């Protein structure tokens, strides 16, 4: 159907494409730079885009779309979008928070369990056919009942903490300000002191310039040789070279990582480590949640074109 012109940047599922093309005159491009090559006549008419992915969308892209009023982001994190420039140009930005909290928090816990209980090694042990010869898997480590620290107690951080509380863990957290939490949870103003006091460090920060390298070498070292670090936020939130060094030297026991710098071409040093569980940025990657994210993105587009308030505005 030909309604408003809509550029969809990134790779969408069939259910999203069908839904978008039933409402709009849809123009799909694989990334932000490809949008620059669309005909000038079309670009001049486009008032909204559906944005997906992690490659930067900045000033030159906004300049090439002179009528742009909305960037509807598919994802809670909007670090790929230059928000300051968008705001300066009166371009609204929306995202897809909350609908993915459960999945991302589930994956954080799964990474901890996979790391502590050596699930990947256990699976290989069985599949290799060597179980009868090799016998029992070498003993792993107890996961429940220890001390967990959450860096960033936002919506996802809170879901992680609630899950860990059910694993009988003592909950510590670090954020800009203390939050309304159960009285037994411990607030830390300083991430280094928190890392010193916990066994597991979960990173649930918002990505972007403000949090780049926030989990510093000092924080990682403070976690200590029995510590595990789990990151489901953005690779950028950690000093990645310091993390690699700590994993290589055994300064910490291990890590569970769903996010990296330069995805999907991650630092090959990660591939040599046997104390890390690696995942391909799949935190929100369930059918249910991805459908909900697409719907929320489209609901924001519809609200914009109807002249209504955005449902989940960013700026
Ligand atoms: C991605 C995510 O958006 O929501 C986020 O911030 O990182 C993910 O859900 C997903 O990879 C789709 O691009």
Describe this structure in words.
The protein is α/β, with parallel strands linked by helices and 315 residues long. The protein folds into two domains: 5-97 and 288-306, Rossmann fold, CATH 3.40.50.720; 101-278, NAD(P)-binding Rossmann-like Domain (Rossmann fold). It has helices spanning 14-23, 32-35, 40-45, 59-63, 83-88, 101-116, 119-127, 131-134, 155-166, 191-197, 217-223, 240-249, 287-306; strands at residues 5-9, 25-29, 48-52, 70-74, 92-94, 147-151, 170-174, 186-188, 200-203, 228-231, 254-257, 276-278. The chain has a seven-stranded parallel β-sheet with strand order 8-7-6-9-10-11-12. The longest helix has 20 residues, at 287-306. 2-keto-D-gluconic acid binds at residues 52-53, 74-77, 100, 281, 284. Keywords: NAD, NADP, Oxidoreductase. InterPro entries: D-isomer_2-hydroxyacid_DH, D-isomer_2_OHA_DH_cat_dom, D-isomer_DH_CS1, D-isomer_DH_NAD-bd, NAD(P)-bd_dom_sf. Belongs to the D-isomer specific 2-hydroxyacid dehydrogenase family.
Compose a concise summary of this entry:
The chain is α/β, with parallel strands linked by helices and 315 residues long. Helices cover 37% and strands 16% of the residues. The chain has two domains: 5-97 and 288-306, 3-Layer(aba) Sandwich (Rossmann fold), CATH 3.40.50.720; 101-278, Rossmann fold (3-Layer(aba) Sandwich), CATH 3.40.50.
What is the level-2 CATH architecture name of the largest domain? 3-Layer(aba) Sandwich
Percent strand: 15-25%
Bound molecules: 2-keto-D-gluconic acid
Number of strands: 12
CATH superfamily descriptor of the largest domain: NAD(P)-binding Rossmann-like Domain
- What sequence of helices (H) and strands (E) makes up the elements? EHEHHEHEHEHHHEHEEHEHEHEEH
What is the average of the pLDDT values? 97
Helix segment tally: 13
Computed CA radius of gyration, to the nearest angstrom: 22 Å
Largest sheet: spatial strand order: 8-7-6-9-10-11-12
Structural class: alpha/beta
Q: What count of structural domains?
A: 2
Distance between the termini: 30 Å
Cα shape: globular
- CATH topology description of the largest domain: Rossmann fold
**Which CATH top level class of the largest domain fits?**
Alpha Beta
> Could you name the ranges where pLDDT drops below 50 across 5 or more consecutive residues?
none
Protein name: 2-hydroxyacid dehydrogenase
Pfam family, one: 2-Hacid_dh_C
Family: Belongs to the D-isomer specific 2-hydroxyacid dehydrogenase family.
Keywords: NAD, NADP, Oxidoreductase
